[in-house]
Amino acid sequence: MNSTGGNGRPGRPARLSRERIAEAALQGDVATLTMRELATRLGVSHSSLYRWVPDRDGVLDLVSEVMVERVLPEDEPDAGSWLDWLTRLAWAMHDEFLAVPGYAAHVAHPHRHHPESFGRLRGRAIAAFRAGGADAQQAEENWTAFGLGVVRWLAAAGNAPEEPPFGRYLDTLLRGLLHQDGDQRPYRQAEATTSAAAPRSVGDEHLLALTRNLTSESAKARERACETICDWVRSFDRREVRTLASLLASAAVLEQDETCLESELNALGELSVTGFVEAEDIAALRRLPRESVQVADVEHLDYLIEEFF
To answer: What pTM was computed for the model?
Structure first.
């Protein structure tokens, strides 16, 4: 007699399945999830759970399968819908990732993506950029800026009561990606084209370049972007200042490099004197542990907190 009932495999409780394991994992904070906690949540023994998944990483891979399925739009992007498709994808990521504590922070780290699931997401997003007129290389680059930028933003926002203004950030990011001429100059060259008589703005192309570098996995690229922000602080318009301030605050919360954190706080200080920054733009900064800041930089953090909160 089959003690598991139905068509269950011998030795495996019929009530367990990959889908049930993933759903149970999604009910708590995935950043602190343990196999023992998950087994208790499912009402099964620790050893029974290991028959289905090899370890915690295996559980998180199942979670990613579910999450990618939830956020991917059902329709295929085309020349008329690609921008709307990407917007819907980004907002679905916003809603679903933030609904699961710890998930955005998990996938924001390098090599934490489930290759198969996120490969699907990447492929569909690249197809959207190709539908919008990008060539293969541009589409890859745009996906890197779009995907990493959205995920890092969400990782910093977490479940804070006041999230950074995601809608404005997304709008800026996508409008920057509309430029597909393939002949964009390095953003430092904007200094040569900005005159005293020109309107106060660096333009979406250069703003996107800064965004890409602030969300780069390279500490050197992030630091260079911060230096450029300080150099250009008088050239940004209100929208650009608020977008960059929001991104810098989010980046600071996630920052692991002390030198980069110093640069990010310095850049925020420079932006704050423009008069354009609002408290909601840097709300994420309140979650930056004071003890994680070097003694020499605590003054910068204290100034920003006192000035806006």
So the answer is: 0.64
